[in-house]
């Protein structure tokens, strides 16, 4: 089975997933794609010897080049890991229930356009939530609204800062995303 990972930022989740499958006989991370030439994920991909494809907004939304690459590479599952762009409808329809995303909060709360990274954890702290966590979900054409596949929680204490929450959530991301992706791939 062949995975493509989309990332716009640091790529720590992409790296954890790639490391998880590094010695797997049946599953490989075949491609890492990004819209951000400065993304930290590019250096991580180089170290992991995974090919990187960069594209810009115009290519992603006005051509089918990215979808064509995924098809030519026989990608079985598309994994979004800190990818900051909405997935074009054509891509959602080309890969039905084959695009998954991780959101650093307990959807349906704290999701949607603009709710990413620090903003999510600030909102959780501001709301004085007693817990936060991760949501792994199928991707459709609206931000963070696809069917939820898996959630895990972590406690939030009254003294926690958004950075404290981000750190606890990231532990969950790195622990669960690789194994949830593996479970999805086995069903494909
Ligand atoms: C994570 O918080 C993830 O939940 C969100 O974007 C961040 C990606 O972090 N989708 P990284 O680039 O994988 O380190």
UniProtKB/TrEMBL annotation:
<feature type="binding site">
    <location>
        <position position="101"/>
    </location>
    <ligand>
        <name>(6R)-10-formyltetrahydrofolate</name>
    </ligand>
</feature>
<comment type="similarity">
    <text>Belongs to the GART family.</text>
</comment>
<feature type="domain" description="Formyl transferase N-terminal">
    <location>
        <begin position="1"/>
        <end position="181"/>
    </location>
</feature>
<keyword id="KW-0808">Transferase</keyword>
<keyword id="KW-0658">Purine biosynthesis</keyword>
<dbReference type="InterPro" id="IPR002376">
    <property type="entry name" value="Formyl_transf_N"/>
</dbReference>
<dbReference type="InterPro" id="IPR001555">
    <property type="entry name" value="GART_AS"/>
</dbReference>
<feature type="site" description="Raises pKa of active site His">
    <location>
        <position position="144"/>
    </location>
</feature>
<comment type="pathway">
    <text>Purine metabolism; IMP biosynthesis via de novo pathway; N(2)-formyl-N(1)-(5-phospho-D-ribosyl)glycinamide from N(1)-(5-phospho-D-ribosyl)glycinamide (10-formyl THF route): step 1/1.</text>
</comment>
<feature type="active site" description="Proton donor">
    <location>
        <position position="103"/>
    </location>
</feature>
<protein>
    <recommendedName>
        <fullName>Phosphoribosylglycinamide formyltransferase</fullName>
        <ecNumber>2.1.2.2</ecNumber>
    </recommendedName>
</protein>
<dbReference type="InterPro" id="IPR004607">
    <property type="entry name" value="GART"/>
</dbReference>
<comment type="function">
    <text>Catalyzes the transfer of a formyl group from 10-formyltetrahydrofolate to 5-phospho-ribosyl-glycinamide (GAR), producing 5-phospho-ribosyl-N-formylglycinamide (FGAR) and tetrahydrofolate.</text>
</comment>
<dbReference type="GO" id="GO:0004644">
    <property type="term" value="F:phosphoribosylglycinamide formyltransferase activity"/>
</dbReference>
<feature type="binding site">
    <location>
        <begin position="11"/>
        <end position="13"/>
    </location>
    <ligand>
        <name>N(1)-(5-phospho-beta-D-ribosyl)glycinamide</name>
    </ligand>
</feature>
<dbReference type="InterPro" id="IPR036477">
    <property type="entry name" value="Formyl_transf_N_sf"/>
</dbReference>
<dbReference type="Pfam" id="PF00551">
    <property type="entry name" value="Formyl_trans_N"/>
</dbReference>
